[in-house]
Amino acid sequence: MRVEHWRQHPLIAYVRNPVLAANTFNPAQWSCLIGSARRANLLCRLACTLDMAEFGPSVPKKAVEHFASARQVADSARRSTLREAQLILAALEPVKIPVVFLKGAAYLLSGLDAGKGRLLGDVDILVPLDAIDAAEHALVAAGWMTTKLNNYDQRYYRRWMHELPPMRHLERGTSLDVHHCILPPTARLKPDSKLLWESVVYPPGAFGGAVLAPVDLVLHSATHLFHEGEFEKGLRDLVDLHALLVEFGSGNDYDFWSSLCERACQLDLRRPLFYALRFTRLLFNTPIPRDVLNHSEEWGPDRLILRAMDIVMLACLTSVIAPTPGYRFDFARSLAFLRSHYLRMPMHLLLPHLARKLIIQERG
Question: What gap in Å lies between CA 144 and CA 222, rounded to an integer?
Fold first, then answer.
C-alpha cells in the first residue's frame, strides 16, 4: 500500500492533527483508531495528547470511556516508572556509578511530550564501559538477575553487544537493560560514547540521574528504530521521534536543527537521521525545515536502495495497524530483521550467529 493510503488511516491522522481528528472523526474511524492504537501500544499516548474538553460533541461515548481509562493506565505507569528509576539509582549509588536514562524513561523523567502516556516494557540505562562490571554486581545485589541463562547468549551479549544480558528483578518483575554504548562495537556505525557523556543533562525530575542532550535523544531514538529491527514497536517509536522533533524544533528553531545535523555528522549517525526525518515527514507531516530535509538527502542511499527501503520500512512500521497483515508484512519484517543484524555484525560473525539461532529455533 502506498504512503497516501496510510496517511489517511485514523491512527496516523490522529497523530498528525489530534484536534482536527477529535472533531471530525465518525464512529467507524473512532473504532478503528482505538483498536489500532491498542495494538500499536499507543492508546495511552493518544489519550494524553488532548484534554477531554477538546473532544468535539460527535465523539462517541465509548471512545471517551476508552480514552479516560487509558489516561488512568498512563498515570499508573508513570508512577511505576518514576519509582523504578529511584530504585535503580539507589542500587547504583553505593558504587558511585553515573546513570543516564534512555528512551522512554528519559522522556518521562525529562517531562517531555514524548513521555506523556508512554508505556515502558523495560527501563534502559547507560553506564560507562569501565563501570559495567561494578554496575552489574550492584544490581544483582539489589535483586536484578539476568534472563539469558545459556552460555552462548551470555557470551554473545558480553563479547559482541553494547549491553549486558537483559535483567529482571526477582521481586518486582521489572525489566532492565544496561548499556555501555548505543550501538554494538561490531556495528558499521561507530558513535563515540564519550561525546554522549560530555553533553548529558540532569533534569530536575530525574532524581539525580541524567538523560542525553536533546539532539542526542533524537539521534538515539532514530538509531534504535532503524538499526534494531524490532518493528513490533516500530510505529510507537516513530511517534516518539515525531513528538521529539515537534517539541525541540518548534517554530523551526534554527539552533536545534543546525545542532542536530552537526551532531549527526559528529557521531557518524547521518543515515539513521535521514530515515527518521524521511518517515516522520511521510507519515505525520512533521514540521521539518526544507533546507534540513534537502541537506539530509545527501546522507541517504542511492535511488534503488531507497525505493526498497521505503517499501520495507513502510510495511514494517504499519504492520501492527494493518487490517489484514499477511505474507507481505511478514516478509518485510524478515528483511528488516536481517538488515539490522547485517548493520550490527560483520559477516564472519553474523552467519554463524544466525545459523545457530535457526538451529535452536528449529529444535525448540
Answer: 29
Q: Is the pLDDT of residue 298 over 80?
A: yes
pLDDT given at position 243: 96
Q: Are strands 144-146 and 167-169 parallel, antiparallel or unpaired?
A: antiparallel
Q: How many CB atoms lie within 10 A of CB 279?
A: 24
DSSP string, 81-150: HHHHHHHHHHHHGGGT---EEEHHHHHHHHT-GGGTT---SSEEEE--GGGHHHHHHHHHHTTEEES--S
Tens digits of residue pLDDT in 83-114: 999 999 999 999 999 999 999 999 999 999 99
Contact between residue 213 and residue 82 where contact means Cβ atoms under 8 Å apart: no
Q: Which cell goes with 313?
A: 520500512
Q: Which domain holds residue 298?
A: 3-363
- In 3D space, the residue among 264, 286, 168, 152 whose CA is nearest the CA of residue 218 turns out to be 264
Phi, psi of 100 (to 5 degrees): -115, 120
Give CA–CA dist 158/155, Å, rounded: 5
CB atoms within 10 A of CB 201: 15
Residue 364 has pLDDT above 60, yes or no: no
* H or E element, residue 168: strand 167-169
Q: What is the DSSP letter of 53?
A: G
Which has the higher per-residue pLDDT, 52 or 304?
A: 304
* Integer Cα distance of 264 and 222 in angstroms: 11
Interatomic CA distance for residues 295 and 355, integer angstroms: 40
Which CATH number characterizes residue 298's domain? 3.30.460.40
Judge whether 351 and 341 are in contact, CB under 8 Å.
no
Q: Can you give the pTM of this predicted structure?
A: 0.93
Angle of helix 254-266 relative to helix 214-228, nearest 10 degrees, comes to 50
The total number of structural domains in the chain stands at 1
SS3 of residue 335 by DSSP: helix
* Structural contact between residues 182 and 124, judged by C-beta atoms closer than 8 angstroms: no
Specify the residue for cell string 554473545: 156
Dihedral through CA 131, CA 137, CA 140, CA 141, nearest 10? Answer: -120
